[in-house]
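Renewal narrative, Specific Aim 1. Our central claim is that a sequence can be written position by position from structural information alone. The example that follows is taken directly from our test logs and has not been curated for this report. It begins with the structure tokens describing the chain, in the order in which they were read.
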């Protein structure tokens, strides 16, 4: 497998080698619950699909643990390798493996014991609570596997093997589709089968992603490095924006489900679930770009190659804008056909399908702005600007979501829920622009100081 030198190879080669596999892998891995939903909707009905959406906040806890450690670790590993501190980079990885396993085991214990309580806490109705609790119970046992899959997959990028994570994602996708068909379509295991299929597919991906890290010749591997928990605070701090993203997603899904249950009952939650599934493909592609540039930006920032950092960011931004426009056009003109795919009875579910299509067209407006905010947050994470990244993530995923979902439905009914998404992105663009202006001013001052210092030394 061909390696990619983050700081030396032509930028177009580095960008395409890292970003394209990252987009595909992120879409595939993030689509696992959507695949479950598609099979459940077709074979078990919309209520079974809605029950999986109800437990979305619990899944976000697992993803939050994964991305806090993974994103923070890769940023620090990349900057360490870029500056020549290879031993530190290895220790960061090894310590992160131990830490992420320990924390995810706590999720396994908690989810296994309190699955019913968690489902009720997440507002699962009497109709949905049994299936929601079953999904939580089963998927909890796979939490350490899911977390370590993301850590190993992300790490292969920073050692110049970005395709490995893609291979793991493809293996995961194929296995999840086959297992969903066997467990849900053939064995009729319903939600339990969906959770088992997802968990096993993540295990297969973990095995694939771990292969390069079993080789001692690679810069980062399972065998070299010291376990030093003093390295974890900067890792967690820098990955905290990912925690905000996942935590915000969990809270926003909870708020939307609660609002929709009050306005439209289980049908409203089913409609939101379908909209969320369709929108997820677009946002996952954008997050894939953000993740793909992390290793490039962090390495070159550590090596003080700022031109490569700037060009990488601009390329990512342009690509996200193209994806956003594409998603909007697809949803607006073909959304009804996509939504119908999730129903086993399109005639009987006609009201839900119409509700989802109407909401999706409003939601899709947000895609004109999402890319700018996602790449902005990812950029600040890569360079170690944890606070700026957190502010962007909290703004788009929590602050303005709460304002919108608590206010707009009072005046616009269910449309107020859908308009919350574009509103949050518009407000966040303003914040992101301000933070970039501050960063550029600070960078200019640092360059001026460095030139001044060099002049004085020559004199």
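The sequence written for that structure reads:
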């Amino acid at each position: 497998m061909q390696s990619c030198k983050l700081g030396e190879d032509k930028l177009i080669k580095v960008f395409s080698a890292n970003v394209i596999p990252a987009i595909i892998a992120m879409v595939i891995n993030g689509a696992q619950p959507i695949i479950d939903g598609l099979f459940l909707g077709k074979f078990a009905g919309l209520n079974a699909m809605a029950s999986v959406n109800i437990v979305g906040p619990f899944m976000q806890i697992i993803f939050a643990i994964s991305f806090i450690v993974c994103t923070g670790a890769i940023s620090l590993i990349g900057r360490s390798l870029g500056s020549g501190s290879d031993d530190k980079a290895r220790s960061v990885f090894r310590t992160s493996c131990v830490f992420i396993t320990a924390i995810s085991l706590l999720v396994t214990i908690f989810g296994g014991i309190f699955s019913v309580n968690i489902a009720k806490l997440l507002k699962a109705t009497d109709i949905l609570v049994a299936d929601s609790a079953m999904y939580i119970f089963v998927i909890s046992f796979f939490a350490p596997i899911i977390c370590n899959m993301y850590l190993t997959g992300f790490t292969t990028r920073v050692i110049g093997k970005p395709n490995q994570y893609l291979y793991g994602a493809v293996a995961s996708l194929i296995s999840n589709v086959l297992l969903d068909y066997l467990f849900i379509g053939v064995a009729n295991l319903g939600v339990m089968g969906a959770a088992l299929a997802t968990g096993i597919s993540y295990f297969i991906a973990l095995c694939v992603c771990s292969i390069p890290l079993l080789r001692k010749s690679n810069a980062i591997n399972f065998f070299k490095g010291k376990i030093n928990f003093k390295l974890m605070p900067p890792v967690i701090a820098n990955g905290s924006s990912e925690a905000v993203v996942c935590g915000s997603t969990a809270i926003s899904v909870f708020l939307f489900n609660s609002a929709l249950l009050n306005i439209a009952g289980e049908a409203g939650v089913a409609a939101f679930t379908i909209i969320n599934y369709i929108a997820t493909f677009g946002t996952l592609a954008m997050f894939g770009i953000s993740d793909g540039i992390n290793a490039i930006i962090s390495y070159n920032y550590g090596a003080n190659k700022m031109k490569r950092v700037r060009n990488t960011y601009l390329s990512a931004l342009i690509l996200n804008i193209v994806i956003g426009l594409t998603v909007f056009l697809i949803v607006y003109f073909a959304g009804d056909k996509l939504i119908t795919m999730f129903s086993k009875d399109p005639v009987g579910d006609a009201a839900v399908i119409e509700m989802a299509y109407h909401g999706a067209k409003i939601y899709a407006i947000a895609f004109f702005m999402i890319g700018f905010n996602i790449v902005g947050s990812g950029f600040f994470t890569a360079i170690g600007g944890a606070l700026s990244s957190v502010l962007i993530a909290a703004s788009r995923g929590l602050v303005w979501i709460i304002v919108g979902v608590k206010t707009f439905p009072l005046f616009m009914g269910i449309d107020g829920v859908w308009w919350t998404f574009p509103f949050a992105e518009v407000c966040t663009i303003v914040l992101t622009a301000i933070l970039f202006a501050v960063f550029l001013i600070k960078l200019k001052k640092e360059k001026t100081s460095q030139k001044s210092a060099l002049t004085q030394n020559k004199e």
